[in-house]
Amino acid sequence: MEFLKNPSQPGPPEDGQIITTRFDKVLGWARKYSQFVYPFVTACCGMEYMSVASSHYDLDRFGTAFPRFSPRQSDVIWVVGTISHKLAPLLKRIYDQMTEPKWVIAIGACASCGGPYDNYATVQGIGTIIPVDIYVAGCPPRPEAIIEGVVKLQKMILESKQMWKVGAP
Ligand code: SF4
User: Fold this and answer.
1) Whole-number Å distance between alpha carbons of 147 and 3
2) Residue pair 40/78 in contact by the 8 Å Cβ criterion
3) What is the pLDDT of residues 49-87, one digit of tens each?
4) What is the whole-number distance in angstroms between the Cα of residue 133 and the centre of ligand 1?
5) Does residue 140's CB lie within 6 angstroms of at least one atom of ligand 1?
6) Ligand 1 neighbourhood includes 145 CB (under 6 angstroms)
7) What atom of ligand 1 comes closest to residue 108's alpha carbon?
């Protein structure tokens, strides 16, 4: 957004100041502070999720504190913990049911790449099932690392050109 002096309009509003911007910028700015997060929490990284969701870390600062437990009311999914092949179709279905535009954060080594579980039962990263926007490293990641991921996602949302999608998937 840019503040400009408008010499042809002295008087209100406020010394003739006007604001110029683009609609997608305003939409992105509003969206980055109103994320409706679906927490898909499966394993020990969940302890860090509980920690970062506590008042000490104050996720309200980023407009991301209020979890939703219906994918139809969510536009961001946090995948936290190990994903087994048995669970994979469920994750995909929840992602498909979320509103557009939507974003994905993979939190922790398991969600990002399978972590220590290089075996037949574990998905080797949720990127093989759904598109991931942000990866947060760690086993488990510290709350500060998760917050860094949230801030990076906010930047991504602000710069997103995606306005809305016509027609449900
Ligand atoms: S990344 Fe580590 S802490 Fe997180 S779910 Fe996997 S094994 Fe547990």
Assistant:
1) 30
2) yes
3) 999 999 999 999 999 988 999 999 999 999 999 999 999
4) 19
5) yes
6) no
7) 1
Q: Is the dihedral of CA 40, 90, 128, 156 positive or negative?
A: negative
Parallel, antiparallel or unpaired: strands 76-80 and 37-41: parallel
Residues 9-30, mean pLDDT to the nearest whole number: 70
35-159: CATH number? 3.40.50.12280
Between the CA of 34 and the centroid of ligand 1 the distance, in Å, is 28
Domain boundaries, the chain: 1-32, 35-159
- For residue 63, the tally of other CB atoms under 10 A from its CB is 17
Per-residue model confidence (pLDDT) at position 168 = 44
**Nearest to 112, CA basis, from 85, 141, 92, 89:** 141
6 neighbors 17 (Cβ within 8 angstroms): yes
Is the CB of 107 within 6 Å of ligand 1?
no
